[in-house]
Amino acid sequence: KKRLRYSERRDIASHKAVKRLLSIMEKKKTNLALSADLTTTDKLIKLVDEVGPHVCLVKTHVDIMSDFSYDGTGLRLKELAKKHNFMIMEDRKFSDIGNTCKLQYTSPLYSLSDWSDLVTCHGIAGPGTVNALSDVIPEGSGCVLVAEMSSRACLTSSEYKESVLRIARDFDNVIGLICQRKLSEREDILYMTPGVNIDKEGDRLGQQYHSPEEVIIRKESDIIIVGRGIYESADPVASAIQYKNRSYSAYTESITIPE
Ligand code: UP6
After folding, report:
1. CA-CA distance, 221 to 193, in Å (whole number)?
2. Which of 245, 243, 238 is nearest to 50 (CA)?
3. Number of the ligand 1 atom closest to the C-alpha atom of 228
4. Residue 257: per-residue pLDDT
5. pLDDT (tens digit, 9 = 90+) per residue, 115-144?
6. What are residue 232's phi and psi, to 5 degrees?
7. Choice among 19, 28, 91, 161 that is catalytic
8. Residue-wise over 194-215: b if at least 16 C-beta within 10 A, else e?
9. What string of DSSP letters covers 163-211?
10. What is the pLDDT of residues 210-238, one digit of tens each?
């Protein structure tokens, strides 16, 4: 089966956030997401401003930061997203009952809905998590469900993955999956894969890495998510360009080779 291009996927997709992300990917020729896991605002903003031109998405973990503030961090990220044309995903991995997730999402400490476009959610609590978020998530924003993890001996069994896919199908605000491969035939959602590194096979805490080619060509995912491979490198911009080029070439190769 021939792999569809971003432009074809964009036409199939119904959710605004999917259309927007695919347009960015096509325009900037990048399927790289930066996992900006830095713990201070100054470092985070500097990294994102430098690497921003090369990515379609910046992923954050606001709860690892020592000095997060809505004005100082959230709004500045939003400005950079506009300047460099990328989307923002807060990797909050919501996993509690619906009511608690709703309170967490709307907490004024972070005001996630004001500056992030996407948020990640686990499926462990069932459909209630995504259902509750659909009450509070702004139009044009969406949830990305964690269907499969990159870590060694993770508990995302095939049955679990199937159940997560079912939740994804049942809710319009689910716009993609965090997964290790393209987990379904659906072309109207995005498949995003963390656990990507060119130089390492893993870390000491269970992370497992694959190459951009493995993820994009063999596993047929759409977006690679790279953290330490970029921000721990001596030259983050040069590394980001390297990841971007390898990952985007893998995409262009896979749309030209008939399967
Ligand atoms: N992440 C994973 N694996 C998953 C889900 N999420 O690594 O299954 C997230 C981590 C981290 C990033 O929370 O922010 O992706 C990976 O970072 P790294 O490239 O530095 O390993």
Report:
1. 7
2. 238
3. 20
4. 65
5. 999 999 999 999 999 999 999 999 999 999
6. -95, 0
7. 91
8. bbbbbeeeeeeeebbbbbbbbb
9. HHHHHHHH-TTEEEEE-SS--SS-SSSEEEEE-B-SS-SB-TTS-B-B-
10. 999 999 999 999 999 999 999 999 999 99
Within the chain, strands assigned E span 32-35, 57-60, 87-94, 118-122, 142-146, 174-178, 190-194, 223-226
Terminal CA-to-CA distance of the chain, rounded, Å? 6
Q: Are 110 and 74 within 8 A, CB to CB?
A: yes
Q: Which residues contact 167 (CB under 8 A, 6 or more apart)?
A: 123, 126, 127, 130, 145, 174
For residue 194, report the phi and psi dihedrals to the nearest 5 degrees: -90, 170
Best residue among 150, 178, 232 to mutate for probing ligand 1, ranked by most atoms within 8 Å of CB? 150
- Asked if the interface predicted TM-score (ipTM) of this complex is over 0.95, the answer is yes
With 0-12 CB in 10 A as exposed, 13-18 as middle and 19+ as buried, what is 71?
exposed
Asked whether residue 258 carries a pLDDT value surpassing 70, the answer given is: no
Output the residue whose Cα is nearest ligand 1's atom 5. Answer: 149
Give the model's confidence band at 61: pLDDT under 50 very low, under 70 low, under 90 confident, else very high: very high
pLDDT tens per residue, range 12-51: 999 999 999 999 999 999 999 999 999 999 999 999 999 9
Q: How far apart are CA 70 and CA 64, in angstroms?
A: 15
- Distance from the alpha carbon of residue 1 to the mean position of ligand 1, in angstroms: 30
Q: Is 35 in the pocket of ligand 1 (CB under 6 A)?
A: yes
128 and 142 in contact (C-beta within 8 Å)? no
Residue 105 token pair: 């999402």
CA distance 227 to 231: 6
Over residues 59-69, mean pLDDT:
98
